[in-house]
Amino acid sequence: MKKFLAIFLALIMALTLAACGATDDTPEGDIVHPETPLPEEEVADVTVDPAVPSDDEAEEAETPLDLLTNIWNNMPEDMKPMAFGGDYHEENQVENAPGIHSTATEEDAQSLDTNFGFPANEVSNVGQVACIRHMLNANSFSCAAYEILQPADSDADLVSSLSEEIRDNLMNRAYMCGWPEQLEIIAVGKNVVAFYGSLDIVNAFKDSLTGLYGDSAVVEFEEDMSEAGGDNTFAFPVPDDPA
Question: Is pTM beyond 0.90 here?
Answer without folding.
Answer: no
